[in-house]
Amino acid sequence: MSSQSPLLEARNIGKSFLGIAALDGVDFTLQRGEIHALLGENGAGKSTLIKILTGVYRRDRGSIQLEGSEILPETVADAQALGIGTVYQEVNLLENLTVAENLYLGRQPRRFGLLDRKAMTAGAKTLLSRYGLDIDVNALLSSYSVAVRQIVAIARAVDLSGKVLILDEPTASLDGHEVEMLFTVLRQLKAEGLGIVIITHFLAQVYAVADRATVLRNGRLVGSRVLEGLPRMDLISMMLGRELLEIENDHAADHAVTTPAGDAPIRFEQYGRRGSVAPFDLSIRPGEVVGIAGLLGSGRSETAFLMFGIDRADSGQALIDGKPVQLSSPQAAIANGFGFCPEERKTDGIIGEFSVAENIALALQARDGWARPMSAKKQRALAQEFIRSLDIRPPDPDRPIKFLSGGNQQKAILARWLVTEPRLLILDEPTRGIDIGAHAEILKMIEKLCREGMALVVISSELEELTAVAHRVIVLSDRAHVAELKGADVTADNIMRAIATPATTEAA
Amino acid sequence: MQTTLISGAITRKLRRLAPQLAALFAILALITAISPGFLSVTVQNGRLYGSLIDVLVRAAPVALLTIGMTLVIATRGIDLSIGAVIAICGAVAASLVADGYPLVAVLVAVTAVGLVCGLWNAVLVAFLDIQPIIATLILMVAGRGIAQLITEGVILTFNNDDFAVIGSGALGGIPVPVLLWLAAGLLVGLLVRRTALGFLIEATGINRRAAMLAGVQARFLLIFVYAVSGVMAALAGLIITADIRGADANNAGLWLELDAILAVVIGGTSLNGGRFSITASLIGALIIQSINTGILVSGFPPEFNLIIKASIIIVVLTLQSPALGFIAGFFRPPGAGQPIGTASGEHRAADKAGTTRTDRTATSLSTGERAS
Amino acid sequence: MKNARNLPFLATLIVFLVAYGLCTLQFPNMFSTRVIANLLSDNAFLGIVAVGMTFVILSGGIDLSVGSVIAFTSVFVAVLVGSFGLHPLTAFVLALVLSTLFGAGMGLMIRYLSIPPFVVTLAGMFLARGAAYLVSTQSVPITHPFFETIQGLYLRLPGGGRLTAMAMLMLVVFAVGALVASRTRFGANVYALGGNEQSAALMGVPVGRTIIGIYALSGFLSGLSGIAYTIYTSSGYSLATVGIELDAIAAVVIGGTLLTGGTGLVAGTLVGILIQGLIQTYIVFDGTLSSWWTKIVIGILLFAFIALQRAIIWYSNRRLADGASRGELRGAA
Q1: DSSP states along A48-82
Q2: Which chain A residue has the Cα nearest residue C263?
Q3: Do C332 and A77 make contact, defined as CB atoms within 8 angstroms?
């Protein structure tokens, strides 16, 4: 431990959005010359913490000290002036401007009141040469690869701030060579004494570049560890919130004998899409729950998008009852009896201003077509039926769905698909962001549907959830299906091992 | 049970229309106060006459346009081309009538021309993914040129009493233009409300992505609304042409698209799409025409017309503005506003957290859509 | 100039040069400074207002009020000079102050009420036209020695062309506009806003100030254009320049500026104006063609350029997607 005070020290940070805690008593310490990985699943509180550090949000409580003095950045510009710069994955620079214009926007050198383009060009060249980048700075940013853009963004942030650099998923769309180029730059900045925070979901990269990792989960600090010598399994279990080797007693896979044999009626063969998910085989039988596990960014949701026709596959085929089908759009998937509850409820699921009844009726109405309208009476009757059976609260079919809690919205979306009586229901993170009570009810509902003969695919980052409901679990890593666990093998331990394994071989 | 349900629906409908009806009655009352003869209706030669009837007749073109525009705006779009489409359809009508084609052939041909114009816009919006305001601007610019091409640059007049009936005739005492817009409003209203079209259009307008993920064919709906808009412009073109017994490619329907947009906005349909009411928009059209006619009969110089119109738009827009809506919600009494405030606040917080991911998935959907 | 962002501009320039070349092949007389000078003089007021529109569209907005503001300015000046006996220069200053404030007011509404520019400027269009009607519904002729002096000013070009004061004013406005767009922080901020408002704000662009400035500039140039129009016609008329906003928008888009904002050049708009003027001139020379072909050809050009822009965006998106998918091969490697 260094005797010197840390570069950045956040203590007991709390932040709520209207009563819902997004961060609860989180500590975070960054040293000079350190690359520090910030890890956690979706909703763990990583981005909230970053936004508090960079002045996008104001903290409710806690203290932040930069080089020993208390700071309270109120705007991004404030944070920049203090020395904290951020590079976001996407919305970051302006593609319609040149590299030099991006580097100097808002602080252009001027001569006689006019922009001094010569000085900008020269300055930009010098600035980028520090990072080993020799490019035409007067070409549009959009003409360069994402890696170059990232380095330009880093150059701007470091030039503006110079003490702390925060990188939010900088490698998500870089190839191996580009990642290495980026890491070289990060190591150089680290040697110059900068403190660097990096958010990424590629564990191999965490081990390759970071010195220390802090893990958040559900808005709380799980722990902070030095990475050298830390087993990968330990890190994964911190992120997924499970102790290793804990024995799961009651899980569906124990009853795997009930899994019907024979050819599965729904099959995907070498199904895949370039840039999304590597080709995979998947078969699903009625009365079976197939779980999909993997870390954030491993291709979980992308698998669902392919199966539901949101993204089109560019390889392989989908077979239903032995016949190939084209899943070219959600309509096509629905026509084949599929249903899909998306992860992003607010943007992909609910029609906010519509009532609960209208939201429930939507998919059935869309399938029946415009010429066969469902009467308001039938809408309400259907809604009332599902409000009762799923215990949607408040039990008012006419209330706009945007006024319901997350759990009740999720139940309404579930009801939307149940009224279409699907043969395959895909649930992407069905329990994210909902309270404990609704959580249990939704799991019970999944088991009930399964008993009634529906085929289900459940995508989840909650391992307990998967082991509790799934008969089989497909494990994804780096956008490929890497393992399939069956029967007694479906344990949290095995899932985590499978997630960790391919990353190890890659690093080796 | 049945009756309470129905009366409940009527109450809801009335509550939805209350601000528009109140505004209309207030304006009518104001005009009557200034010029007492306004409300008197007389019967001459078996046709109704009077300022009030005049409002209904003169409102016809904007009312027709409003029907289509309401649907287009409900999908979060806009159709700037309808004024130019009126000019094209008027030119086609006048030249066909002048050439002696039978009335039915003229009506069918003009409606078809309007439909084609609407489909052109629909293709640009639904298939080429061009922003509606930009897509419909093309026809707005070129349309009047096309109309002049048809009329060969002159004001094409004709003498055909059968055709003129559409503009100035009466059926059972009621002027034909009034019957036309009432019938069109009723027909389209029934079409979208008695089928699921209206429901699906609203879903698409509120959240296109979520609607598509639920299997709604947004593209088909877009084609439908722009086609209706084109056909309504054709009908408006027929009325205007029949009324003046001629086609003026330069001035027919000039700026009527803006009146139609205004009527929809006054009718309370948000420019951000979603819930719509054709009835409310039609009342909006009547409000605009009442102001126009009212200024005339009240003896005010017509110069005031635009200023008053502009002031109304500014007031309505300011009240509808999201920024001001937030302030209004903020000042709501704590008890009444609580559940709403909490829910939307939660929504906002969640939105912020989910922004990056959503952007990414949105792109993937639109590429998927394009590929199909 | 090697940048992809200048591609639409180059396309426009080539279209103009080829079209002009073809025209002179058919009518050798069109190749003269006289034709060029007339073309510039006749479109001077349109050119001035199109410079303001370029800034508005570059920022991702639109201004529908410009035609009405021109009409208002023209009757306002005519009445001040004619009925109130003010010196034209005083009237000009008053008109410019009013139109600039008007634009700034619209910018304020767009920014702080979060109402789309289309709707705000539509209201502004009604308001300005209504105000013009209030001033006078008649055409107000102006007879003032100052006007005659300005109208008499011109630069004789080799070949007999007369570059009028208004044409020179337009060229100056274009030159200053190009300088502001490319060499000032305000200009850089306009491009940044058009690229992505959120990113621009994060990168320190003063969004509110810039938006208000943009619409104030458009208001100012509409006022200036109104003055040019008044001098050109020696009168003020509240029904004048109806629909001129469409011509201005068309000139901007044909000039290679993306209607979604962020990309384009002020110089492109000048070429857009020249193309419109060329079509009109050709029709005059031809003698048999009618004036409505102008609108149709402009409509076709608009479609062609919007389609070209879509194609460029699709192309660059596909390149991006390819880049992204390359990144995904990492797992397999």
Answers
A1: HHHHHHTTSS--SEEEEEETTEE----SHHHHHHH
A2: A96
A3: no
Q: Closest CB to C3: pick one of A107, A139, A275.
A: A139
Whether the CB-CB separation of C254 and C228 falls below 8 Å is answered with no
> Which class in CATH covers the domain with range C4-318?
mainly alpha
A50 neighbourhood in chain C, CB within 8 Å? none
> Is the Cβ pair B141, C302 closer than 8 Å?
yes
Q: Tens digit of pLDDT for each residue in A432-489?
A: 767 666 777 888 888 889 988 899 999 988 787 888 888 999 998 888 888 888 888 8
Mean pLDDT for all residues in chain C: 87
What average pLDDT does the segment B159-177 reach?
87
CATH number at residue A33: 3.40.50.300
- CB contact under 8 Å between C328 and A77, yes or no, is no
pLDDT digits (tens, 9 = 90+) for A274-294: 878 889 999 898 889 999 998
pLDDT in tens, A181-194: 889 999 999 999 99
**Strand ranges of the sheet holding A220-226, from the earlier edge strand across to the other edge:** A84-87, A164-168, A195-199, A34-39, A212-217, A220-226
CA distance B147 to A9: 71
Query: Percent of chain A scored above 70 by pLDDT?
Result: 91
Give the closest-approach CA distance of C196 to chain A in angstroms: 7
Let me know if residue A237 belongs to a domain: no
The predicted complex's ipTM stands at 0.84
**Secondary structure string (H, E, C) spanning B53-101:** HHHHHHCHHHHHHHHHHHHHHHCCCCCCCHHHHHHHHHHHHHHHHHCCC
Its sign, for the CA torsion B118, B124, B129, B134, is negative
Q: Which residues contact A217 (CB under 8 A, 6 or more apart)?
A: A40, A41, A44, A238, A239, A241
Nearest CA in chain C to A55: C202
CB-CB under 8 Å, B213 with A366: no
Within-domain flag for A126: no
Q: How many residues does chain A have?
A: 508
Q: Does A112 touch chain B (CB under 8 A)?
A: no
Are the beta carbons of A351 and B203 separated by less than 8 Å?
A: yes
Q: Which residues contact A212 (CB under 8 A, 6 or more apart)?
A: A34, A35, A36, A37, A224, A225, A226, A227
State how far residue B327 is from chain C, nearest Cα, in angstroms: 11
Q: B367 to chain C nearest CA, in Å?
A: 9
- Give the residue extent of every domain in chain C: 4-318
The residue out of A230, A262, A288 marking a domain boundary is A230
Give the neighbours of chain B: at least 3 Cβ pairs within 8 Å: A, C
How long a stretch of residues is chain B?
372
- Which residues in B lie closer than 8 A to residue C320 (C-beta atoms)? none
Domain span at A404: 348-421
Q: Does the structure show a pLDDT above 60 at A246? A: no
CA nearest to B255 within chain C: C243
Same domain, yes or no: A38 and A165: yes
How many domains would you assign to chain A? 3
**Cα(A292)–Cα(A469) distance, rounded to whole angstroms?**
11
What is the reported pTM? 0.81
What mean pLDDT do residues A25-52 have?
A: 88
Domains and CATH numbers, chain B: 45-319 (1.10.3470)
Check whether residue A295 and residue A182 sit in a common domain.
Answer: no
CA distance, residue C251 to nearest chain A CA (Å): 21
CA distance B40 to chain C (A): 30
In degrees and rounded to multiples of 5, residue A20 shows phi and psi of -100, 120
- For chain B, the first-to-last Cα distance in angstroms comes to 47
